[in-house]
Amino acid sequence: MTGENFSMIVLAGGKSSRMGTDKADLTIGDKTFLQIQIEKGRKLGIRDIQVSGYRGTNCDIPVTPDRFPNKGPLGGLESCLRGARHEKCLVLSVDVPLVPVEELENLLHAGDPGGASAMILKNNGKEQPLIAVYHKDLADAMLAEITDGNGSVFAFLNKTGYAVYESAVPAECFLNVNAPEAYADVKKKICRFM
User: Fold this and answer.
1) Using an 8 Å Cβ cutoff, are 27 and 17 in contact?
2) Cα distance between residue 77 and residue 51, in whole Å
3) Which of 40, 88, 162, 189 has its CA 20 to 30 A from that of 130?
4) Is 53 left (phi over 0), alpha (psi -120 to 50) or beta?
């Protein structure tokens, strides 16, 4: 299977301030965004799945707490990478529910051009650092970035270097649901992508 040698990290710890409710608990049909993302990992054959930062109760996977709270996605990544069973981890933010599982499979197969320890997806000119594959051994470098006070994923990636996987699927597949209008838009598009 594609993902049997990968771990997966679903980042679900955002504050959801613009949405007004936890994005992980938003639904499409009878599934929450969190359930949709976990299901993608399972379809890829990934057995080691971690959920970072989720505060709700609709999850059948134990949530990995951030070792350094309030440090954003980088804090969640640092904690989960330390607990990952495999060297490579598929990272997927909870708020991009339309990403096709087939495109995640392509990302897993993209390899490591130039020996980079991270490969992020790029679509329509936009880099997506939270749809990516990260090596487990990046945890210490992430800790240094968090300790230095910046905590930005892009600042971290710019220091460590990364490769890019160019995705040709429609940009709508990467719609980030951060506000009620985006959620309404996703629900209109869902039948086309899932």
Assistant:
1) no
2) 10
3) 189
4) left
Closest CA to 118 of 79, 171, 158: 158
Of 14 and 44, the one with more pLDDT? 44
With a CB cutoff of 8 Å and minimum separation 6, the contacts of 170 are: none
Tell me the pLDDT tens digit for each residue of 116-172.
Answer: 899 999 999 999 999 999 999 999 999 999 988 777 899 999 999 999 999 999 998
SS3 133: strand
* Residue 51 β-bridge partners: 10, 63
User: What's the CA gap between 117 and 136, in Å, rounded?
Assistant: 9
Q: What are phi and psi of 171, to 5 degrees?
A: -60, -25
Name the phi and psi angles at 172, rounded to 5: -60, -25
pLDDT surpasses 60 at 28: yes
